[in-house]
């Protein structure tokens, strides 16, 4: 029996390569969602900013929801990486939180992007049909709070914080401050001095003799 000539087998066609820079398009989409929010960002605004057509968006990202969630994941991953580095490099937990609040005040008012924080504000006041999107964004906020809580737990173990400190409550407090700073940044058009003043006031709530 003759061996089959594999050269005559039909070859599976590979997907058509993208005609645009996917990462750059995702970055621009992220800025649109950041400025307008998930539901308010229209397909026209997204494709115009990304420099692509609707069919190209669907081919590369699936749909608007998947595009948004990927943009949030990109933003959150970078934020969590930066947060981990900041908490690791700071000599004490207090220094870490003070640096976090001050750097957030600067970042939330940076003119290179919309004011505030994408995760804190882009999925607020969504309709019931987008509840799962809000849940996904809420999980990303929880990730940040969890990272902060772990640093506080270590601070209690090391004696940096009083033994009766509740790391969960303290992490929730400073996470809430960060979310409030984001809303202030949007409401005031990026008033950095106001956010820095809020950051300084929040540090006065630090438990123990350094508060």
TrEMBL record:
Gene3D superfamilies for the chain: Homeodomain-like, Tetracycline Repressor, domain 2
Pfam families: TetR_C_13 (PF16925), TetR_N (PF00440)
Top-rank taxon, per record: Bacteria
Domain HTH tetR-type residues, every copy: 19-79
Key words of the record: DNA-binding, Repressor, Transcription, Transcription regulation
DNA-binding region: 42-61
GO molecular function: DNA binding
Endpoints of the signal sequence: none
Name by which UniProt lists this protein: TetR family transcriptional regulator
Species assigned in the record: Oxalicibacterium flavum
């Amino acid at each position: 029996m003759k061996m089959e000539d594999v050269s005559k087998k039909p070859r599976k066609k590979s997907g058509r390569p993208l005609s645009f820079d996917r990462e750059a398009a995702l970055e621009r989409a992220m800025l649109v969602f950041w400025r307008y929010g998930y539901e308010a960002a229209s397909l026209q605004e997204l494709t115009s900013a990304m420099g692509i057509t609707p069919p190209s968006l669907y081919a590369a990202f699936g749909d608007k929801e998947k595009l948004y969630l990927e943009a949030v994941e990109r933003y959150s991953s970078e934020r969590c990486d930066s947060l981990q580095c900041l908490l690791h490099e700071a000599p004490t937990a207090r220094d870490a939180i003070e640096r976090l609040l001050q750097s957030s005040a600067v970042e939330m008012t940076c003119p290179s992007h919309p004011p505030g924080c994408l995760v804190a504000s882009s999925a607020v006041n969504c309709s019931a049909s987008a509840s799962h999107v809000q849940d996904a964004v809420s999980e990303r906020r929880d990730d940040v709070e969890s990272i902060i809580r772990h640093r506080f737990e270590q601070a209690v173990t090391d004696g940096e914080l009083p033994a009766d400190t509740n790391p969960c409550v303290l992490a929730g407090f400073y996470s809430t401050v960060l979310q409030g700073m984001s809303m202030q940044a949007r409401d005031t058009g990026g008033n950095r001095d106001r956010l820095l003043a809020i950051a300084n006031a929040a540090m006065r709530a630090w438990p123990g003799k350094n508060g």
